[in-house]
């Protein structure tokens, strides 16, 4: 597998993270400019942002939870030359679940749908880690 093919889903996940942080900053700025949020109410990190800004902020923060295991897997698989077609295909499935999760998170925030999509991502990532571990441990 080429480095570009392996890293393309990583770049897509990173793009999602940057899009969310930019959206979060703009949403928070808007609430400050409009006066809906006062600086004194958030200056020490208090969770006093309006619902929409909080949803986007929580979704952004979530990109540093489960995806960290994805980044670690790719960072290990690539130099060890174990980033094969299965890893690349599952990487794309994982990233699609992250986009779907983010989409639900910042719109309806339907916990049932959000949890289902999140669990799908967890299971895909778990399968990737098991596959990678078996390839390393069994030298296949």
From TrEMBL:
**Keyword Transmembrane helix listed:** yes
Give the UniProt entry's GO cellular component terms: membrane
The cellular location(s) given in this protein's UniProt record come to: Membrane
Cited InterPro entries: MAPEG-like_dom_sf, Membr-assoc_MAPEG
Q: Which UniProt keywords apply?
A: Membrane, Transmembrane, Transmembrane helix
Keyword Ion transport appears in the UniProt entry:
no
Protein's UniProt name = MAPEG family protein
Show the stretches that span the lipid bilayer. 6-26, 115-134
């Amino acid at each position: 597998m080429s480095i570009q093919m392996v890293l393309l889903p990583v770049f897509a996940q990173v793009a999602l993270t940057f899009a969310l942080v930019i959206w979060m900053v703009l949403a928070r700025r808007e609430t400050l400019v409009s006066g809906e949020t006062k600086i004194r109410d958030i200056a020490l990190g208090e969770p006093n942002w309006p619902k929409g800004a909080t949803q986007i902020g929580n979704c952004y923060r979530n990109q540093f939870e489960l995806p960290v295991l994805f980044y670690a897997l790719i960072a290990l698989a690539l130099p060890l030359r174990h980033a094969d077609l299965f890893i690349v295909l599952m990487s794309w499935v994982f990233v699609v679940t992250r986009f779907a999760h983010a989409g639900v998170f910042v719109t309806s925030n339907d916990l049932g749908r959000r949890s289902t999509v999140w669990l799908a991502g967890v299971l895909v990532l778990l399968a990737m880690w098991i596959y990678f571990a078996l390839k390393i441990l069994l030298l296949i």
